[in-house]
Amino acid sequence: MSKKEIQKEMDNLIELLNYHANKYYVEDDPEISDYEYDQIFHKLKSLEEKYPLLKRQDSPTQKVGGAPLKKFNQYKHSSPMLSLDNTFSKEEFFEFHKRIVKKIGNDDFDYICEHKFDGLAVELIYKKGILTVGATRGDGRVGEDVTANIKTLQNVPLKLKNTNLPDVLKIRGEVLMFKSDFEKLNLEREKQGLKLFANPRNAAAGSLRQLDSKITAERHLTMFAYGLGNKLDFIKNQSDIYQYLSELHFPVSPNANVVKGPEKVYSYHSYWENHRDDLEYEIDGIVVKLNSLDYQNMIGDVAHSPRWAIAWKFKPEEKETIVEDIIVQVGRTGILTPVALLKPVVIGGVTVSRVTLHNQDEINRKDVRIGDSVIIYRSGDVIPKLERVIKEKRESDFKPFHIPNNCPVCHSKVIQYEGEVALRCSNPYCPAQIKETIKHFISKKGMNIEGIGEEWIEKLVDANYINDVADIFFISKEKWLSLDRMGEKLADKFLKTLENSKRVSFDHFIFALGIRYVGEQTSRILAQKFKSIEALSQATKEDLENIEEIGGKIAQSIIYFFQDSKNQKILKKLLNIVTIIYPNLNVSLPLAGMQFVVTGTLKKYSRAQIEDLIVHLGGKVAKSVSSKTTYLIVGKNPGSKYKKAIELKIRILDEEEFENQWLK
Questions:
Q1: What is this structure's pTM?
Q2: CATH of the domain at 469
Q3: What is the predicted pLDDT for the residue at 517?
């Protein structure tokens, strides 16, 4: 591979990891398993180690978690809350052990092994024994202040009673949800027609990030403490920390164990890999730490993780089952997705009865047929995957499966765009597409029409009450009441919700329209660049491509959308009933006309945070230094961008100078 091809592959991996990290950490709505994410992460890391000069400063290998949500006040951690590096095999762990031995100079040291909780990392601040702050890890440096919600956890002490307390004590741990509580929560959400949580981890994260602490209290979260955010002179070992936390009445890992040597660690890992289903909470591996704090300090940290600890993940759980049928579902953009219906099988306490087969190429590659015996796996969540077909069990009359030439819903012709793997229904009025388009329109990131779940959208389209996104605002109370299981109280609630949602910010409105390739971030950029929806709808390809973050494919998609006569009619209906809140583009923002580049590790901000600030103040953010750059903001270890800025005589600021000039 050429240098250009390698860089392109690394860029693609970074984009993919950033997308899935946002789905996992910020939206609590993962699309792939932890195992799949880790495999992509390790592929990127291997390329960066092999080609260090191509390593990007903003690589996910240098980051922790996701950016904090803006709906909460931010809390800056006094010392970073790092994530852990992962290993997946005995060989990899033994290599980790060899590195530790080499650093220390001997093998006469202890490890402490504990469960790797599948939850949300938090930090609690106690001042003079009183709980004053509870915050999420966020990006490791800045988290969300969720104090009111933390206080609803029954096993979190609000006041500490101990003679050995510093004025300020920082407790770190994991908030999680027991399996039984997770099942009850999803059962209740299913009854209400709400979207189900993917797994206990995401249920815990979503519950802790509620603006209404009463909802958090109802979700029965729990916390296990595992560390301190500040040093205490009388604590010498990690095991001492657990003893101290227990004395303060914090629950700690009930199965933590001090061991010597890698074979003992392997035994601990093997035991819990085979017995994790016996636990009342989810674990996806074990955590191995040097027990001695002196040795921990000696070994030190890298950018996003400590060198003295590692997470040894379990292999994905696998079970054999049978493909009883293959159906084809139709999505919002008409894409046909094959789904294998399985003989139900329990994997890690979760009943799996279906898996997506993605597309025809995937079916061909794995050669999946109705009747086949297959291996299904899941890794730390309930997103199942089909690993492989057991071909030796296949019978001679099992026929290859092909997605039909006609849409399974409306029977229109199936098409395939040049350069795409996906097959699509050619009918834009297909009921399946209409349903998915409306679900996208009412979603939280779109019009944010809460309470009207997917079940009701299905019923409205099937009853022919709505045929496009605008129709939802014109449903009469009589029509609502004619639907099965609809009462007057619920109908009034839905009508009120719809009325309240008629005022929407410009960026949410753009996202709600469902323009192909236009996601949340692109919607925000377009809302900042155009003064109205009319201006956006009349933009030329040149206008759009002049926006740095928008390429030709996105620009062409936007133009196609607004040129479509059907979309024009829908938009006209919407604009007659919806009030769009536009940003005030006439206000002279302090950074208007300036272009910034950020490099190095900052103290107060993550890269995403300071870039958001720059954009909010009217500036532009670029990835590389050029003659167009107005300022370079530098942190620790700035690298080649710093040298280039000096060569080009670009003005250089640290984050304190940036704050003093524009934020004070």
A1: 0.51
A2: 1.10.150.20
A3: 83
